[in-house]
């Protein structure tokens, strides 16, 4: 099953879930398996109509698409060297699914924070453009969460190890171990 909202793993009979962003305290076990690079993107037609922001502060004059968790509405945190820049962006649209955020951005509805992995195809064929490249967003942590308590079962541990190896091979530029 794939879902953007948090699922009840015990009721669903799920052995392992992959979650991004901050984890809630729970009795479940978790292993950090990496992180996803995050970036601000927009469609070329949005930028042609509204201009390209040169600094994070300029985002306040733009339409932004907000999401959930690490991609959500708590302000966007940028780093330039050791300097933290916190920007409260204006939301034209709030969407609770990553594919929905990406689709709205491609359609020119605003700027969005997305992961490098999620937006790779759209950036490769120029449906989306990365903006504010001189400013880093905090990466989104990626975690394997399991219901067996602090230590995973052998089958869950084997699956986690396999996922880590495959993700690192497939996405060296967007996924960090």
Task: Indicate the topology.
Blueprint: E1 16-20, E2 29-36, E3 38-42, H1 44-50, E4 64-66, E5 76-80, E6 83-87, E7 91-94, H2 98-106, E8 111-115, H3 116-124, E9 129-131, E10 136-137, E11 140-146, H4 154-170, E12 175-176
Parallel strand pairs: 4-7, 4-8
Antiparallel strand pairs: 1-11, 2-11, 2-12, 3-8, 3-9, 5-6, 5-10
Question: How many whole angstroms does the radius of gyration measure?
Answer: 17 Å
Tell me, what's the shape? elongated
Structural class: alpha+beta
Q: Report, as a whole number of angstroms, the end-to-end distance.
A: 24 Å
Plain-language structure description:
The protein is an alpha+beta fold and 177 residues long. Helices cover 24% and strands 31% of the residues. It has helices at residues 44-50, 98-106, 116-124, 154-170, and strands spanning 16-20, 29-36, 38-42, 64-66, 76-80, 83-87, 91-94, 111-115, 129-131, 136-137, 140-146, 175-176. A hairpin with a 2-residue loop joins strand 5 and strand 6.
Outline of the structure:
The protein has 177 residues and is α+β, with helices and mostly antiparallel strands.
